[in-house]
Predict the 3D structure of the following.
Amino acid sequence: MKLQNISADRCLTAAGFLVHKDKILLIKHKMLGIWLAPGGHVEPNELPHHAAEREFFEETGVRVQAITAFPTLPSLESENLPLPFAYNLHWINKPGEKKARSNGKICGQHYVFAFFVEPVSAIKLSDADDGVDAVRWFTREEVKKIETRDGLRQEMIYVLDHYPKRTE
């Protein structure tokens, strides 16, 4: 059965994925107890890529900007925004569970926009956010062994393999 066909309270979220020197930056989520990309809920009237940038900074101390994963079409009538490399729907609280909440709201499912991000200033890590236990860089081999969900691990490996090459 498809998740989109199941009635659930859904929340819009965004995450940022940064690779530097062949390592990916991840956070250890305090409540979930697993490693994942920095990210969180999209605030009212906030664009998803801005949410990814804001959440990334709040959780890691690193200022970033989202970079498009795919070419955008030219347009005179529209503003093209950075395209995520992935957009998915997943359970955060399955029926009968009430563990994860944000701003007093319990979400059943999360829509997630997953963006590549790049730093806009020097990379200096901090884990000042209350919801973060740790911030750390991981190699591809380390990602295969960390405590996380299989779908998240697949995303991390995809990012390590497909992160846009930039001149430094």
Observations:
- Residues 3-162 form a domain with the Nucleoside Triphosphate Pyrophosphohydrolase fold (CATH 3.90.79.10).
- The chain has a mean pLDDT of 88.
